[in-house]
Design a protein that fits this description.
The chain has about 260 residues and is mainly α. The chain is built from 10 helices and 4 strands, in the order ααααααααβααβββ.
Length: about 260
């Protein structure tokens, strides 16, 4: 009889262990960002409706914003919404406003980095937009519409974000670089990279992501009907005296000055 009960005992032990294992994994592995709202000494959460009394121009468009997905209903609504990024607003509300009693992510990217941890790492790379001088909200609108400009068929709008500051690259050019029809992020990572000028890849490997064709002869690098094997040994495509006008040219279809 003991031999018959032994498998049942083993099954109970194994089943109990498996259940505890699943519970443990479910606690430590989540498929969403875990965020702690900014802390403001002495302040408590008042809810987004209280913010709307003064900031209606901002809250009125928030319903279709990417960050509106952080909103919730019921008792949890007080600490999820505006105060997820700006911190608890009771002190700010009682004072009738002020800049020293509320968090403004435009002045400090740390609030954004709590969720966007990968961007914290990119901003720490050798070549990046200087955090603090260029704020996240200079390029992203957290209060209305898509936080990331462009995307899909709206390629031009993504470039407009960059061209607000980088006006010299706007053109128009007689001979344009087709990559600009897509957007600046075809070649650049705006948050930071290990490469100069925030390029996504270094040397000719960046250009060869688009300008590449099947090679049929050993030792040759045919691009556009011409062997580039010797050219790429001189340096990058834009520093070897060949295609230095990478954004566009007014004089040469091969993108030269």
């Amino acid at each position: 009889m003991n031999f018959r009960q032994l498998p049942k005992k083993n099954l109970l032990v194994f089943g109990g262990t498996a259940i505890w294992g699943l519970l443990l994994v479910s606690c430590v592995m989540v498929n969403r960002t875990v965020m702690a709202p900014p802390n403001i000494p002495g302040a408590t959460f008042v809810g987004s409706k209280d913010c709307a009394q003064c900031h209606e121009d901002v809250t009125s468009g928030f319903h279709d914003a990417t960050h509106a997905r952080l909103m919730t209903s019921g008792t949890n609504a007080k600490n999820v919404g505006c105060e997820s990024c700006h911190g608890p607003g009771s002190v700010h509300s009682k004072a009738g406003g002020g800049s020293d009693n509320i968090v403004n992510p435009a002045r400090n990217p740390e609030t954004c980095f709590q969720c966007h941890t990968d961007k914290r790492g990119e901003f720490a790379l050798p070549h990046a937009h200087p955090a603090g001088k260029v704020s996240c909200s200079d390029c992203h609108d957290p209060h209305k519409g898509d936080a990331i400009a462009g995307g899909g068929t709206r390629m031009a709008s993504a470039s407009e974000t960059c061209l607000k500051c980088h006006e010299a690259q706007r053109g128009p050019y007689v001979f344009e670089h087709e990559a600009l029809r897509e957007n600046c992020t075809t070649c650049h990572n705006p948050h930071g990279t290990v490469n100069d000028k925030m390029l996504k890849s270094r040397n000719q490997s960046l250009c060869l992501q688009c300008h590449y064709q099947q090679q049929t002869v050993t030792g040759q690098l045919m691009i556009g009907g011409r062997d580039h094997a010797a050219f790429v040994q001189r340096g990058t495509c834009w520093t070897a005296g060949c295609h230095e006008a990478v954004h566009g040219s007014h004089v040469n279809s091969s993108l030269r000055f």
